[in-house]
Amino acid sequence: MKIYQIYETYQEQLIRYAFSLSRQWEDAEDLAQQAYIKALEQYEMFEQMHPMQIRGWLYTTVKRLYIDQYRKQKRLVHLAEDYEMGYEAFIEDHLVTSDLLMQLPENLRTVVALRYISGYNSTEIGEQLSMKPSTVRSRLSQAIEYLRTALEDR
Question: Which CATH architecture has domain 104-153?
Fold first, then answer.
């Protein structure tokens, strides 16, 4: 079956199926169109398929596209809610963290900055500061304990 025949044969059914999932005509049309784009990308496969297999492939593709779209939308809504509710808390946390880091002794602050801000591991930090990786890990432990105590005192 040629791809244009597939489109003509299943277009209306596929849009109705997509509408049953999304409950929005525009979204249903978009889902059906995305399914046909995927079909175009793999058109050779349809030449050897039975019409019911083609229909099944299209329906499965629409369902998967809908699920992907739903998950993406759900993440975006969650991020927007987090942003709206958490922006002030984020600023406050950032200020508290900056203040606490500035209270660290210089030797500990440097190790913390290289590890958690620059992303280096203890071996790389040790090479940069001419110390053993075990010393770096020890200083990180000291810094974490210092920060934990300072946070508890607040």
Answer: Orthogonal Bundle (1.10)
